[in-house]
Amino acid sequence: MTVTLRLGYIPLVDAAPLIVAREFGFAKEEGVSFDLVRASGWSMLRDLLDFGQVDAAHMLSVMPVARALGLGGGSQALEALMVLSLNGQIFGLSPQIPAVPFGDPYAAARALADLPGPLRIGVPFPFSMQAELLAYWLERAASSAKVDIRTVPPSRMAETMQAGEIDGFCVGEPWGSHAVEQAGARLVLPGSAIWSQAPEKVLAVRAGWASENPAVAGKVMRALWRAARWIEMPGNRGTLAEVLSRPAYLDVPAELVDRTLSHRLLISALGPEMHVPQFQSFHHGVANFPWRSQAAWIGERLAKRFAMDANLAASKARAVFRSDIYRDHISEMGEVLPRASDRAEGALEREEAMPATHGSLILARNRFFDGQIFDPVFAEG
Amino acid sequence: MDSPLTIIVVEADRQRALEIVDAIRASGDHRVQVLGDGAGLARRVAEIQPHLVLIDVANPSRDMLEELTLASRPTERAVAMFVDRSDPGLTRAAIEAGVSAYVVDGLRAERIRPVLDAAIARFHMVSRMRSELAATKAALEERKVIDRAKGFVMRAKGLSEEQAYALMRKTAMDQGKKLLDVAHAIVVAAEVLK
Predict the structure, then answer these.
(1) pLDDT tens-digit series, residues A101-126
(2) Residues 20-39, chain B: which have Cβ within 8 Å of A?
(3) Å from B43 to nearest chain A CA?
(4) pLDDT, tens only, A202-230
């Protein structure tokens, strides 16, 4: 018998694993059927998940961690079963702001620090990787820049900028490119230039759901894992762009989506088009593994922002990323998995192989722009 | 006697907003103000400093209100997402009806309840009408696709209407697909082969 699951998502390129699992039969192969529920914003998606109107959701990686720390609305504990994508954020500015060189965190930071400010920057949600990456970058590269972070729904970045309510944005694709097309925005810095392996979206469920329904949770996770692998296979990009761009999903021109998927960004209405390595990852380099160290990084950042105890926050955060559940269900396919569930974030200058549960794994380049290494296990002093 | 509450209803549709305002006024003597959902929503809410904000669950502008819940300066009245932790039933009812509420911290539950009950009832009615309309539209669209596919099968295979319909149904059953999906495929193929 086929079990039907309701999965919530926000129209973004990185909702691709859910859409692909449904459209290209990966859910069906696992004997489940996905009923995809499109939400118009993150608060709505959170409520749908909290109150059981969806079984699982495509969610900002920071949201379930913030919940564990008691930040924001709602009290239902959440868990992240797998990472659905890394990066894909883009920081851009209004055409009213003097042009800033593309892709150089230090040069861009200097330019921002020279502006009279305060610069109003839209992010999709108070608890988002966009907000965290911006804060991390600015505090380390442009501590004198005056910035005021506002919440703006992704699909409204362009119109909000046109209305003069924000001077810039940090948002997931296709909405940055959309702001270039619709509002003449200029793209300045991809999130991957701040941290090349920032966990962007996770598969979030209510705490306990995956343990109470292990068979179904396993099916969902394997279907999404296969979909993520398919997304990065050569030759699938055009088809994927076409499906994602449909009115029922993202409802934007396929060309915009195709550009994102090929890691090319048109940085202003007049160009040029820039190629951004590691702009967004769905699968390559163990992208789907929910590393406890990623959660700990998020926990520590939130602790800093909201003046909480960093160690306590990191330990609560770690428990949210369920690498144990991921191991249980993904190893069933005979997949090679990392031996440890922590790693030193920011410590890989280039792609590297590492010994795994059997054989070896390729880890992707993992760098913070300033060379910081975040190692929650072997922390100094 | 309690002083009246200041309530903001965020709703761009004028008629709908009026209906909701009526329902709330009937529940008590409150100051109700309607805001559209434009770019400056969070700023305007912060200026008005309401006790309660009511907004459609599906309104993307809700995310802008979310940041108000994090404001901690005493001058910016903290508006907390209404999850009265003592009454999850009421919250669930609200979410299901499609209304979300942001309430000033510390406002007593018994003051909010009548307003929210009224809003829930009104939202229920509106969303039922909406979903009925959507269902009717969808059914009509499906009907059109099936009719077009049937027409094509009739011409291509020289079948009667009934025979064409039976053939499509059989194909759907054999392939474990929905009739509508088979009809879609036929229409697409027909366009290509035209």
Answers:
(1) 999 999 999 999 999 879 999 999 99
(2) 38-39
(3) 10
(4) 999 999 999 999 999 999 999 999 999 99
Structural domain for B104, as ranges: 6-131
Same domain, B19 and B93: yes
Task: Indicate yes or no: CB of B59 within 8 angstroms of CB of A152.
Answer: no
The gap from C-alpha B65 to its chain's centroid, in whole angstroms, comes to 18
pTM score: 0.85
Residues of chain A found within 8 Å of residue B100, distances taken between Cβ atoms: 43-44, 47
Which H/E stretch holds residue A190? strand A186-190
Q: Which of B60, B81, B91 sits opposite A155 (nearest CB)?
A: B60
pLDDT at B75: 47
Last residue of a domain, one of B131, B152, B171: B131
Residue B1 within a domain = no
Q: Which residues of A54-83 are buried (b: 16+ CB within 10 A; e: fewer)?
A: bbbbbbbbbbbbbbbbebbbbeeebbbbbb
Length reported for chain A: 381
CA distance A102 to chain B (A): 27
ipTM of the complex in this document: 0.75
